[in-house]
Amino acid sequence: MKLFIQIPCLNEEQTLPAVLSTIPESIPGIDEIEVLVIDDGSTDRTVEVARAHGVTHFVRHTTNMGLARSFRDGVDYALLHGADIVVNTDGDNQYPQAQIADLVQPILRSEAEIVIGDRQTRTIEHFSGFKKAMQRFGSWVASRAAGLDLPDAASGFRAYSKYSLIRLNIVTRFSYCMETIVQAGYKRIAIASIPITTNAKTRESRLFSNIWQHMFESGSAIARVYLMYRPMALFASVSAVLAACGLIPFVRYLVLLATDSGGNHLQSLLLGIVLVITAVLSITIGVVADLTRLNRTLAEEQLDLQKLARYGD
User: Fold this and answer.
1) What is the CA radius of gyration of the chain?
2) DSSP characters for 48-106?
3) In Å, what is the CA distance from 188 to each residue of 61, 115, 148, 259, 301?
4) Which of 4, 43, 88, 173 might form a disulfide with 78, Cβ 3.0–4.6 angstroms?
5) How far apart are CA 15 and CA 49, in angstroms?
6) Confidence class of residue 110 from pLDDT cuts 50, 70 and 90?
């Protein structure tokens, strides 16, 4: 059983030594542990520091490609080099590397294919009350979209089995975290969470400039993936709401006619017709989107076979 620990980095020469020095050298049930540094366009000595600490596996981007692309490229490298499990941590030393051993245990016990480290955000001192509330809300939204119950959907401290990585396909550019959760829920890939602690804050996030950007990007990713995999549920809900709203003007029109209140009340009739037509169009779009989803499912099954040929059984 080979474990790859991948560390996406962007100018992490100051914090990377602390990360590398705390990675466990042995884990029960794991035969080999390899460390992979993904240099996402660093302009400092990140790579030199990693080499000085014994890292021999690198993926390098000449310019900043973002977290999602770094994750994809790292996974591709790890699977090509025989990884059975891939753990994703961070170069800013946010996560406790000593708990990697705990993170992989549900996979080793065949209890889950993806394991997420629950940071227990309500206990993190440097998180403001607003940020804690938004983290809980975001996790709730992602959980509902995936049909799961996850306490910390935004956590990047994760372990993935080879099987799950072959089944997942990353298409967003901002972050893979929310996308993989919604996909895993749709594809019935088992996910578990384990409580973890976090280290002291070392710097501000480079993934987003403020919490509003993070909320917008994460929300967009959830909506996009949900639309890709559950379009009929979304458009059917919209259609039902529009149809219900369309009935109100019709009922008003009939009531006014019955009471002979005067006037032709065409405004109510026209509004009702427009809303009902929009509801029909919405359900029609849902049918077309669902057919597209079926085609995507068939294409992804072919892609799974290609990945198996590329990475081995």
Assistant:
1) 24
2) HHHHHTT--EEEEESS---HHHHHHHHHHHHHHTT-SEEEE--TTS-S-GGGHHHHHHH
3) 33, 14, 10, 56, 14
4) 4
5) 10
6) very high
Considering the chain, what is the average pLDDT of its residues? 87
Comparing CA positions, the residue from 80, 218, 199, 49 lying closest to residue 141 is 218
pTM of the model: 0.79
The angle subtended at Cα 154 by Cα 153 and Cα 156, nearest 5°, is 110
- Residues 41 and 76: beta-carbon distance below 8 Å: no
CA distances from 312 to 27, 83, 132, 306 (A): 24, 10, 42, 10
Nearest to 6 by CA among 30, 29, 40, 31: 40
Give the separation between CA 215 and CA 138, rounded to whole angstroms: 8
Q: CB neighbours (10 Å) of residue 255?
A: 12
Q: 266-284, pLDDT tens digit by residue?
A: 788 888 889 999 999 999 9
Task: Give 159's strand partners.
Answer: 87, 115
**Nearest Cα to Cα of residue 307 among 40, 72, 67, 8:** 72
> What whole-number distance in Å separates Cα of residue 300 and Cα of residue 117?
28
Distances (CA, A) of 98 to 28, 31, 79, 198, 283: 13, 17, 23, 11, 51
Quickly tell me which residue has 């794991």 as its tokens. Answer: 30
Backbone CA torsion sign across 120, 179, 88, 113: positive
HEC string for 230-278: CHHHHHHHHHHHHHHHHHHHHHHHHHHHHHCCCCCCHHHHHHHHHHHHH
Number of Cβ atoms within 10 Å of the Cβ of 61? 17
